[in-house]
Design goal:
46% helix; 3-stranded antiparallel β-sheet; single chain
Length: 405
């Protein structure tokens, strides 16, 4: 998020930031490893790898360099702007604070705004990490899609970073996902139940997911221009144009090193399931969507303290004790297995993973810093405390270090 340094309010200046680097108004800029690009909201800037990478290890320095470059340029603006992390701005009021990207590609954003009203938290106030995992052929697609569906329900336990909305704690750790789950209500076929349907062939995916979405959006955009894979808004979507499945349920963390640690945990757990280390492929493919959706909702609310509702689900992810675990306990078991089986995958992220397992996801650490870790009901947050904590988070982003609360 781009914010003003003096009061941390959102600043719709992504176009000015891109122009300051490129010398003209552009929507994206490519560097050797990292690209910058605009997003729907004018106060949001996106950073992404400039194409596929073989490993996540070592990438944090490349991201840190670009964030440093961005912050320098933002500091030269009259408003003395800066970047702020986490999945949601803690007091943005989207109805009055939202400005949409007005340049190239803006017609797409205007169309989304016409259909859904993008001046809401579910559209204008959310920052996520998208992780694209590749498949080679239809058999790998079916195996990967099954594994991704299984992992989605516990991701908020490591990735939640949005506990505050419009200056209030809500009793929910991952408010970004709470809003995400209802941001397409006018065309519900676009997001389904967030957890994708259990389909494992190309034809099945197009028939069960893409075609219903295309038919529904065509009622609002009859020229067919929105009948593209990117209109699918589920928590993980197939991108056949590049043979990947894109995981979308990860909140932005406090720094790239933390983002990459969460991404590595996600990828490693999916790999574990693809290799059938803890659960057979037929069993994964038969898992009921409703059961996964129910677990996701609990984890969105309670994060790492969420109780795993289905003991069979915990066993499928490697839990072998009798008592049902919390999501945090289940993740600790998964990490232990990964440390034994996939040493190289976590080697670059060990310190960050330890912090998450010991202190909880960033949302939990933010609540602890605010003295509201046990708040179960909605409550206003002292503005001075909120300002202090989010300034510290901004410093973590600038310094490339984790927030301990």
């Amino acid at each position: 998020m781009i914010v003003r340094r003096d009061d941390l309010s959102v600043l719709p200046a992504a176009d000015r930031l891109l122009a300051a680097q490129a010398g003209k108004t552009v929507g994206d800029i490519d560097f050797r490893q990292i690209s910058w690009s605009n997003e729907l909201a004018l106060h949001v800037i996106e950073l992404k790898t400039n194409g596929p990478v073989a490993t996540l290890g070592g990438l944090s320095k490349a991201f840190d360099l670009q964030l440093w470059r961005m912050n320098n340029l933002l500091g030269l603006m009259p408003e003395k702007a800066m970047l702020l992390p986490t999945g949601m701005h803690p007091w943005m009021a989207p109805a009055k604070d939202t400005k949409l990207w007005p340049h190239e590609y803006s017609e797409v954003y205007k169309t989304f705004d016409r259909i859904f009203d993008c001046r809401t938290h579910g559209w204008a106030n959310m920052q996520s990490v998208h992780l694209n995992l590749p498949f080679q052929d239809e058999a790998e697609f079916g195996r990967l899609h099954a594994a991704v569906r299984m992992v989605l329900p516990i991701l908020p336990a490591i990735a939640a970073s949005s506990p505050v909305v419009e200056g209030r704690v809500t009793g929910v750790l991952d408010n970004r996902l709470a809003y995400y789950g209802r941001h397409c209500q006018r065309v519900p076929q676009l997001e389904g139940k967030v957890i994708p349907e259990p389909v494992y062939t190309y034809v099945g995916y197009r028939r069960e997911i893409l075609e219903p979405a295309y038919q529904a959006i065509a009622q609002h955009v009859p020229d067919g221009s929105f009948c593209e894979e990117w209109v699918n808004a589920r928590g993980a979507i197939a991108r056949f144009e590049r043979n990947t499945i894109e995981v979308r349920l990860l909140d932005v963390q406090e720094c790239p090193a933390a983002d990459l640690a969460v991404a590595a945990l996600t990828a490693g757990t999916i790999r574990m399931l693809c290799q059938e280390q803890t659960c057979s492929l037929p069993r994964q493919q038969q898992w009921r969507t409703e059961s996964l959706v129910e677990q996701l909702q609990v984890t969105i609310r309670d994060g790492e303290k969420a109780r795993i509702l289905d003991r069979a689900y915990a066993a499928a992810l490697g839990w072998n004790a009798t008592a049902a675990p919390t999501a945090g306990e289940l993740w600790a078991t998964i990490v232990g297995r990964m440390a034994r089986e996939q040493t190289s995958l976590l080697a670059s992220h060990a310190a960050q993973v330890r912090t998450i397992l010991k202190h909880g996801p960033l949302a939990r650490r933010i609540l602890k810093a605010l003295g509201l870790d046990h708040a179960r009901e909605p409550a206003d947050v002292d503005k001075g405390k909120l300002d202090d904590v989010y300034r510290r988070l901004g410093k973590c982003l600038g310094d490339g270090v984790m927030f301990l609360g």
